[in-house]
Design goal:
Largest sheet: none
Shape: rod-shaped
Distance between the termini: 70 Å
Number of strands: 0
Helix content: over 70%
């Protein structure tokens, strides 16, 4: 029974870390896009 629970524990740990990593990356990408959009709007307003 122990080896089976060990595999399950490793799987759950990997899944949790993967979700956390994807959340951090997605949040970072979203902030980058938002910042780029704001800068582009500011530059367009300045050129007008």
């Amino acid at each position: 029974m122990c080896p089976r629970t060990e595999k399950l524990r490793i799987f759950l740990l990997g899944l949790g870390l993967g979700l956390l990593l994807s959340f951090v990356i997605c949040t970072w990408v979203w902030k980058l896009l938002l910042a780029a959009g704001l800068i582009a709007i500011a530059l367009l307003m300045d050129s007008c």
